[in-house]
Amino acid sequence: MRVAKILFLTSIFVCIHSIALADSQNSKFFGQAGIGGVYYDFGGENISSAGAYVGGEFGWEFFNRVHTIFGVRLGGGQSKASQVLGVAESAGFVISDQYVKVGVNIAGVNAPLYINLLTERNNHDSKNGLSRHLSLLGAEIEGALPLGNVAKLEYSAGYAFSTGDSSYSIAEKTSYIEKDFSKSYVLSASVGFVRNLSDSTAFYTKLIGKYQNLNAAYYSDSTQGYPSSSNLVGMLEFGFRGL
Questions:
Q1: CA gyration radius for the chain?
Q2: Residue 11's pLDDT is what?
Q3: Comparing C-alpha atoms, which of 235, 225, 228 is closest to residue 87?
Q4: Are the C-beta atoms of 87 and 81 separated by less than 8 Å?
Q5: What is the pTM of this model?
Q6: Is 181 helix (H, G, I), strand (E, B) or coil?
Q7: Residue range 154-205, pLDDT digits in tens
Q8: Among 107, 119, 211, 227, which lies 20 to 30 A Cα-Cα from 63?
Q9: Which CATH class is domain 1-242?
Q10: DSSP letters of 148-178?
Q11: Computed from CA positions of residues 85, 89, 93, 95, in that sequence, does the dihedral angle turn out positive or negative?
């Protein structure tokens, strides 16, 4: 599954990049860097995490119709737990998120609406607390609305399902989340504001919310490692964007 995803996305990237090289006037590179705060509410058990991260994106847009985006978030913070076997009441954690999107604009240039296919990896690692690794495949809509000549409102909404690589780890023992497209999924939404500072730079701020409905996770001996859960994730990010 993982190899197929990599090959599929790499093939798309190579094809699109070839088009860009053939006509560079109709393509543009863009990137952004920012900092943010994040909060995790782990359902199923009384566990929560709060922290901060640095994030970055870069990508290419072609003919104002097709884009490909690579993104990462790196950070950490503190987790709190209450009466969870094998999980410390207070523990540090590290997050590492990576995602890739490929999309097509079905609307206009000034108010684009992209339909994206995406793959994402969300990692929440803690030596003495709860660790969780989510591998996701899905789709989203991503658009923007102009607010005058120098600003715009950005928004997105998406659905992704958990693959068989998703897992929890407690006390160095790993259990895998049952794969079920209808019962193990993530709903996400975001809204953001962008203001141009010059022809090539802009300031942005974005609020991101996620609802995670996840099946129970089991060890190799079929005993349950973590119960089914409904979880919430909130992020607030701001930074600068360049074209």
A1: 19
A2: 47
A3: 225
A4: yes
A5: 0.88
A6: coil
A7: 999 999 999 988 999 999 999 999 988 888 999 999 999 999 999 999 999 9
A8: 119
A9: mainly beta
A10: SSSEEEEEEEEEEEE-TT-EEEETTEEEEEP
A11: positive
Q: Return d(Cα 218, Cα 182) in angstroms, integer.
A: 18
pLDDT above 90: percentage of residues in the chain: 83
Length of the chain equals: 243
pLDDT digits (tens, 9 = 90+) for 89-133: 999 999 999 999 999 999 999 999 999 999 999 999 999 999 999
The upper half-sphere exposure of residue 73, i.e. CA atoms within 13 Å in the direction of its Cβ, equals 24
Tell me, letter by letter, the H, E, C secondary structure of 65-114.
CEEEEEEEEEEEEEEEECCCCCCCCEEEEEEEEEEEEEEEECCCCCCCEE
Neighbours of 225 (CB within 10 A): 19
pLDDT-derived band at 7 (thresholds 50, 70, 90) equals very low
Domain extents in the chain: 1-242
The Cα 136–Cα 138 span in angstroms is: 7
For residue 28 the two structure tokens come to 């543009």
Asked if 137 and 152 touch (Cβ cutoff 8 Å), the reply is: no
State whether residue 118 is helix, strand or coil: strand
Query: How far is residue 215 CA from its own chain's centroid?
Result: 19
pLDDT tens-digit profile of 34-93? 999 999 999 999 999 999 999 999 999 998 899 999 999 999 999 999 999 999 999 999
